[in-house]
Write a structure and sequence with these properties.
The complex is a heterodimer of chains A (192) and B (267).
Chain A: H1 4-12, E1 19-24, H2 29-43, E2 47-52, H3 57-66, E3 74-78, E4 94-96, H4 103-116, E5 122-127, H5 129-135, H6 138-154, E6 158-164, H7 170-179, E7 182-185
Parallel strand pairs in A: 1-6, 1-7, 2-3, 2-5, 3-4, 5-6
Helix pairs in contact in A: 1-2, 6-7
Chain B: E1 3-6, E2 14-17, E3 24-25, H1 30-35, E4 40-41, E5 45-50, H2 56-69, E6 73-78, H3 83-89, H4 99-102, E7 106-110, H5 111-118, H6 127-143, E8 146-152, H7 154-159, H8 164-180, E9 184-190, H9 204-207, E10 210-219, E11 222-232, E12 241-247, E13 250-255
Parallel strand pairs in B: 5-9, 5-10, 6-7, 6-8, 8-9
Antiparallel strand pairs in B: 1-2, 3-4, 10-11, 11-12, 12-13
Classes of the chains: A alpha/beta (192), B alpha/beta (267).
Chain lengths: 192, 267
Amino acid sequence: MMTPTELADVLVEMPMPSAVSIGFTTESYFDAIRGVVDIFASKKNLETIYITSQMPSNSIIDVLTLLEIDMKRIHFIDCVSQVMGGAVARPDNVYFVESPTMLENIMLKVEYLMRKNKGKDSVVILDAINSLAIHNNTKILSEFFHILINSLRAKNAYTIIFSMEDFSSEELKGMMSLICENVISMSGKGEG
Amino acid sequence: MRIIAVLTMVTKPIVRRAGEERNRCVTGVEGLDNILNGGIPRGNTVLFTGSCGTGKTSISLEYLVHGAIDGENCLFISVTEASVKLLENIIPYEFFDDSLIKKGKLVFVDMPVIYNKLGLVTVEFTLEDVDTLVKAIGSIVKELDIKRLVIDSITSVCYRLKTEEKIREFILKLGKTLSELGCTTILVSEISPTAERYSLYGVEEAIADGIVLMGNLERRGDLLRTLQVVKMRGTQHSRAKYVLDLTPCGVLLVPLLKGGSVSSGGG
């Protein structure tokens, strides 16, 4: 089982821009967050754009607070809260997408935040592919990732896609292998 | 090298070498400039057409603001809404600077004021009125050395012209006058969400040099704002559909994903 520091060390070695899929089990979810959002982003001095499709941004913010992770340089794109009828509070660093099916709007919010970051080195984290796959078919999802990752490559940004290994179909694993240069499995089970 | 000489009604022929690029009016809307291979060919009259809430006015304003920032004199002629109200309602662009208006780089004029000054008070304009109106707009553009013009909306002007003949006359004369003055013009056109043509009267679309279709696309209950360049004389361009967002950074565009099941809903 990979520790957060080991994960961050692997990521730090990857050239910019890189697209990486990180697979983990439910138990190592917090370790993946710490490894990427805290250690890796800090070491590389990166602005972080965190796309939440797994759970609402306020839950992720609670997790990051619990892990004592500094959130000054993290912006969230929340694809869950509005579809649940939530998101009453609108923190400054959270941008809402109406539904996880509005994949173009996710790209538009990423584009907006990249512009706001004004060329600063960035990492875009998508948490997680499994929940997006609930709402979208594989065909449109592949197209979405293909465009998003290439657009981020052009902007010299890292793309990190979280994947829950226990819930990943062979199709999703195949997609990750195709669109990402690197596939990391924190559990050592292997993603592809 | 072969020379193409294009003779027009203007006494001086426009001479352009084969393969030579036309001078561009960079809109400043990055996604749109990419679609148009660098911007609108200078002097073109372009119809921005779509149903309500599709972002026609926002993108037109952004086009003018970028022009003004680049030092060009820009004019917005508001037909349907008082300029003061319009300015209150536009998205507060991060790149917008009040001084552009104070310096006269960005000018707002209400069409009813022009009508009043010209004594055009009848509900239906005559062909002479059309002439008078085109000359008046041409004079303003010439006097202020306007390089970018937006008329929002042309549909409201056409409403007072009534017949196809007068609409054709108006747009042809206006386009010619503005093109000769080196002014690149956006005519905002309103259509209903279910319209199967690009303009209310069907004449505007045939005469304009370019058509940018803005619409709402419904996909599985989600409503997406879309933009598609249907026609643009003088340049190669993408004809694909893009999804847009109106943000404080300006209009952003990304390609429409085609993998899902798509049902059209008004453009």
